[in-house]
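Researcher: We're teaching a course module on how sequence relates to structure. For the next exercise, students receive a sequence and then see the predicted structure as tokens, so they can try to spot secondary structure elements on their own. Here is the exercise chain.
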Amino acid sequence: MFHLLEKAVLGMAVLRLLSGSIEILAAMLMIKFNQVEKALVINSSLALVGPMILIATTTIGLVGITDKISFTKIIWILLGVACILIGVKSR
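Model: And here is the predicted structure for the students to work with:
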């Protein structure tokens, strides 16, 4: 009756739930403080969380499929993630 989840999928989902919870908490803090300056500080701190969650979930996913795909494809995926991070890097 019970369908067991893969560990990698469960780990990725938990990280995304954590990320979403942090986002909701940040929104509630912005409303609580009701000041633009503090809201900007809170929003800026979220810029650190997003990429870390992206890297962590991608890493868990890659570890989960390492036996199913070639090393070349793993490199392409890592390069794609690097391109995303470079593309959204603020200056």
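Model: If you want an answer key for the exercise: Residues 25 and 36 are 16 Å apart (CA to CA). The mean pLDDT is 90.
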